[in-house]
Design a protein that fits this description.
Layout: E1 6-10, H1 14-24, E2 33-38, E3 56-58, E4 69-73, H2 78-90, E5 98-99, E6 104-105, E7 110-111, E8 116-117, E9 122-123, E10 128-129, E11 134-135, E12 140-141, E13 146-147, E14 152-153, E15 158-159, E16 164-165, E17 170-171, E18 176-177, E19 182-183, E20 188-189, E21 194-195, E22 204-206, E23 211-212
Parallel strand pairs: 1-2, 1-4, 2-3, 5-8, 6-9, 7-10, 8-11, 9-12, 10-13, 11-14, 12-15, 13-16, 14-17, 15-18, 16-19, 17-20, 18-21, 20-22
Antiparallel strand pairs: 22-23
Bound molecules: coenzyme A.
Length: 213
């Protein structure tokens, strides 16, 4: 199979531009270039902007995978991210892992495909990061943590040792989850929340009292 050389970023919003920035930091050794963005809300054009001179290639649905291409889904909302990732996977797309040069990944950690590790993130010993997970800047993934498919870990989050997130969990900026706590599928943890005990699937919890909305 051809080595991935051309990266397609799915989503040309703020996070898409961040992901483009982090790919630029990979340097020549990575052997990849940004081929462009896919975005359903933008017209195809030769360059997204003066600062991001990569084309908007078309809608997500119009994408047909080509040899040597890898996609990365730069979308924060886990449900939207998973829906898009699964539709692209069904078409035979290959997924690229964007791992910023400042990210630290333990030798014993396991990473799926389409993973984004932003600047200064940490994935510690024996942690598992499933497909299509984002760990944003300064996010900490402690030892033995399991992060389920499509989850989004925002900036400065602390997932302490042994935390288990089911698929599609959204953890807002600066939240902390205490050791060994489980979070059910598609739960949302509000910014700044300290999570002390299990969060049921599909619920939203937020600080200061971790009340259910
Ligand atoms: C928890 C969250 C998902 C709730 O969103 P929402 O359903 O739209 O809720 P609202 O904004 O309508 O707020 C509802 C109430 O919760 C409070 N609230 C919301 N988020 C809160 C938080 N993180 N901490 C404390 N209180 C919060 C609001 O003040 C409001 O209180 P009120 O009813 O007394 O006025 C959202 O506020 C949040 O924290 N998202 C994470 C955002 C983030 O980290 N983004 C990073 C992107 S890179």
């Amino acid at each position: 199979m051809a080595k991935i050389r051309n990266i397609i970023i799915v989503g040309a919003g703020g996070f898409g531009r961040e992901v483009a920035s982090w790919i630029e930091h990979l340097g020549a050794d990575a052997g990849v270039t940004i081929a462009g963005f896919l975005d359903d809300t933008k017209e195809p054009c030769a360059a997204l902007s003066a600062d991001y001179p990569y084309p908007v290639l078309g809608s997500i649905g119009s994408y047909e995978p080509q040899p040597g291409e890898g996609v990365v889904v730069a979308i924060g909302d886990p449900r939207a991210k998973l829906r898009i990732a699964y539709s692209l996977a069904e078409k035979g797309a290959r997924f690229y892992n964007v791992i910023h040069p400042t990210a630290v990944v333990a030798r014993t950690a396991m990473l799926g495909q389409g993973v984004i590790l932003c600047p200064f993130s940490l994935v510690s010993a024996s942690a598992t990061v499933a497909n299509y997970v984002t760990v944003n800047a300064y996010g900490g993934v402690g030892h033995d943590v399991v992060i389920g498919e499509g989850s989004t870990i925002c900036a400065h989050v602390d997932l302490t040792g042994g935390v288990q997130l089911d698929e599609g969990v959204f953890v807002g900026s600066n939240a902390s989850i205490l050791p060994g706590v489980d979070v059910g599928a598609f739960a949302v943890i509000g910014a700044g929340t300290v999570v002390l005990r299990r969060v049921e699937a599909g619920t939203t919890m937020y600080a200061p009292l971790s009340r259910k909305l």
